[in-house]
User: Fold these one by one.
Assistant:
Number 1:
Amino acid sequence: MLFLKDRGFQHPAASEITPRTVYEQRRRLLQLMAAGSGGLAMAGWAARDAMAQIPRPNKLAALPGARSTVPGATTMEKLTAYTDVTTYNNYYEFGTDKSDPARAAGSLKTRPWTVAVEGEVKKPRTFDIEELLKLAPMEERVYRLRCVEGWSMVIPWVGYSLSELIKRVEPTGNAKFVEFVTLADKKQMPELGSHVLSWPYVEGLRLDEAMNPLTLLAFGLYGEVLPNQNGAPIRLAVPWKYGFKSGKSIVKIRFTEKQPATSWNHAAASEYGFYSNVNPNVDHPRWSQAKERRIGEDGLFAKKRATLMFNGYEAQVGQLYAGMDLKKLY
Ligand SMILES: Nc1nc2c(c(=O)[nH]1)N[C@H]1C(S)=C(S)[C@@H](COP(=O)(O)O)O[C@H]1N2
Ligand SMILES: [Mo]
């Protein structure tokens, strides 16, 4: 098995589980990046997915393909197709149909963009997006994403641990939670007049959850800048929690002593708890959470997959919930 031998004993980079041509294109791109060209044209990448025929961002967020050393950060499962990742979305500010965000999020202006970091921190400050892009080295993280609705994807994100940002603002001893406030601008977001959720879309984590190295500040996916519909220019990816915990297009990060109120909890407290850890043993009041449909596997004979405790990240995050009753603190 020459092929296997070629890989040696190293854990293969996520890029190696994408088709060979893609990997080669990525390597060429990395070489160009290393040579110092900043915002590159996306010709190679675009060619890869020419059949998709969807508009794609034309610049790279940052160096992609850098393998993460964070344990659990790279699942070897088959990646969900770029087309599915970017056309089957939940971003209610742009509509509630899965195809709405891809169609409507073109109106989102991602520059200029700032993220205010405030509350219980010794060094509160507002970061410009350009600063955030350079704050820490970008890594590729291939995470499972499990939506509370019962479907899942495998997405190669680009970003760095949220803890990199948190360390720099120095939380005070009173900081117990982190609140994430996302953009709410009627001029850019057609559905803000609707009342499906209270706007802005707000989410939160406990500080130790926010500090876990798996909690990712994402700026890109598939080695490219985040498409608007996926939460450009900056969003969270918290892989062991239901997808709605990962706010898109973040504008404010606030450290608090009290548990923040969140939009989904406000909309339906009995259905969407603050924790919302992926848990096959705690059903949503209206449906089972034991199984999931992997997007891209929905053919006639496709079987649903068993949902894993903490979405398969139990080894990395289980200890955060030691002694907690996860049925009560859903
Ligand atoms: N601001 C905002 N963030 C959001 C949402 C939203 O409607 N608005 N939807 C959430 C839900 S329910 C999911 S499953 C994920 C989907 O992310 P994706 O479209 O990039 O796969 O984003 C989450 N973040
Ligand atoms: Mo979701």
Number 2:
Amino acid sequence: MSRKSVPFTREFIEEVTRRYPTPFHIYDERGLRANMRYFRAAFSWVEGFKEYFAVKACPNPHILHLLHQEGCGTDCSSLAELVMSERTGITGEEIMFSSNETPAEEYIKARELGAIINVDDISHIPYIERHCGIPEVLSFRYNPGHLRRGNAIIGNPADAKYGLTRAQLFEAYPLARSKGATRFGLHTFIISNELERRYFVETARMLFELAVEVKDRLGIRLEFINLSGGIGIPYRPEQEAVDLERLSEEIRAEYERLLVPAGLHPMKIFFESGRMVSGPYGYLVTRAIHRKEIYKRYVGTDACMAHLMRPALYGAYHHITVMGKEDAPHDQVVDVVGSLCENNDKFAVDRPLPEIEIGDLLVIHDTGAHGFAMGFNYNGKLRSAELLLREDGSVELIRRAETLDDYFATLDFSKLGRLGA
Ligand SMILES: *Cc1c(COP(=O)(O)O)cnc(C)c1O
């Protein structure tokens, strides 16, 4: 069994907690940068390769800025994500706007920023036209329906709310062209958190074939193919990361077999990865504050599912390291739980761990994507701080923890008793 490591020692992180109390998420700059360089190098054969980092995975401008320095754009799907991107200095075609059921104001903002709009439904062509005019570049999100099988998180494409059918796609391009669009892309997103390379190779093949058909039937030469996100990460110690070099080689083989002979070289290839880019480089640091022995054994922490919802939401595994006890026997079976009044507020169930004492620091792995981001305020729980572990070993606060004043900021207590009077 391979072992999951933490990029800091117990002494180091104890020192950090003196300045920034637990719980907090901490991101590893070195890991983030190295991983992004590896990703780009793997696809360096593609002319116009670009990763549009899915902002929803880790919506912090410092992370976006750092990834931008490594060549990433942003993939946005809400007004806040567009504005965060803009305020980070990422605009124009460095933004992919892949939304669905999109309100007009978001299309207007995306147009104002010059973002590439990736349309989720054919009915949105007239909708966009009415609200902000048809842009020069348009991309369409394809839903292959019964032609493909999804996986557990997204479900089968035919049951998913996203995208255009195949028939609609062949209507959408000419319709958009008739309304003034001149540059086109194709997108699909049908799998999430998948570690099997072949799913992504099959997706590339499907889109490459479609690009050839679009050219043959419509005389439209697509400019880019967006393979989107969904690349999984090894949450469990025994799992292996997707080998991006091999994935790239396999996609290249399809590219050379399908696109090159059709005269579609060079074709830009885009991704909108979130999880694979930032997931492994975030850690939720929390302290054990209680131990409880009833019908089972529990360790209570000062973090809860408001700080990391994936275990409660999906039953997802997140590895836990008890700092300073990495080599101790993992001979205690416990549930590691938070303080929400919800019985599924558990980071781990029946997990063999070393003997945990009150005050021990626990590090919950792989929280760099869909971790802090999915946080919420249920039960009046406050969102935690986010820290960045810099390459030089310093630690920077990149988002302060919420305070009670933040929580109450939208309420006006001075109106008490006067409502409806
Ligand atoms: C969530 C999302 C992504 C990123 O997915 P990951 O699984 O984090 O890679 C990319 N594109 C769209 C449209 C999304 O909704």
